[in-house]
Structure formats: structure tokens, C-alpha cells
Design a protein that fits this description.
Elements: E1 2-7, E2 10-16, H1 17-20, E3 31-34, H2 56-64, H3 86-100
Antiparallel strand pairs: 1-2, 2-3
Length: 106
């Protein structure tokens, strides 16, 4: 991880994906930069994302997920199934994995 600085009070940081995602030997290094002050050279993809916004509709949908979870071999998991934190994504991933293995979980 490399700290690049701040801009308008926003932290800018770059992660070296080759190490974080265990990509092994690649022709070039792959990095992801959060909040860059400018678009880095050799950018492959640029997108904007945010944390989910809690709402009554989202809470209701989360409670009804079991009705479609695993149907047609499709399993859903992500931080959006909780409060949007990394831990929520992990919990959802573990639950989906257990479901795929047809075991009870958490």
C-alpha cells in the first residue's frame, strides 16, 4: 500500500493488487487507487462506487433474500446484505458458501 496524500480533505491511497490478490507474476503491476487527485497513467478502468444507503425497502429485500438464494444455482453475497461493511460481505460470503455446500451456517 502506498499513501499518496490528500486532496480537499480526501485521502488518496493506492493498493498493489498483485500482492493483495495473489496474482503472481504478471507482465505489469496492477494497482487500484482510491480518490486519486488525477487519473493515473495506464488506467484500465475507472468507476465510482459508494456504500449502500440503508432504507426500509433494502431491509425488506434483505429479509426476503432467502426466497431466491440458491435458486437455479445462483447465490448472492455482498456487503449490501448487511450495513455495507467489509465484515458484512464476509458474513454473506460465508453464508453463501455454506449454502452451496448444503450445510447450516451462522
Amino acid at each position: 500500500m502506498e499513501f499518496l496524500g490528500t486532496m480537499n480533505g480526501r485521502v488518496c491511497v493506492t493498493y498493489w493488487l498483485n500482492i493483495l490478490q495473489n496474482l503472481g507474476e504478471t507482465e505489469r503491476p496492477y494497482c487500484v487507487t482510491l480518490n486519486p487527485p488525477h487519473t493515473p497513467e495506464h488506467t484500465l478502468l475507472k468507476w465510482t462506487t459508494s456504500h449502500p444507503v440503508p432504507s426500509v425497502a433494502a431491509s425488506k429485500a434483505s429479509c426476503e433474500l432467502y426466497q431466491i438464494q440458491g435458486k437455479r444455482g445462483i447465490w448472492f453475497c455482498g456487503a449490501y446484505q448487511g450495513y455495507g461493511f467489509h465484515e458484512d460481505g464476509l458474513k454473506a460470503g460465508v453464508a453463501a458458501a455454506y449454502g452451496m455446500l448444503r450445510r447450516n451456517c451462522c
